[in-house]
Amino acid sequence: MRKLVSGLFVSLDGVAESPDQWQFAFDAEMGAALAESLEKADTIMMGRVTYSEWAGYWPTVTGGEDADFAKWINTSPKYIVSSTLTDVDEWANSTLVKGDLATAVAELKAGEGKDITVAGSPTLVRSLLEHDLLDELVLLIHPVIAGQNRARLFGDDATMKKLELVSAQPTSSGTIIATYRPQR
Question: In order of start, what are the domains of the chain with their CATH numbers?
Answer without folding.
Answer: 4-182 (3.40.430.10)
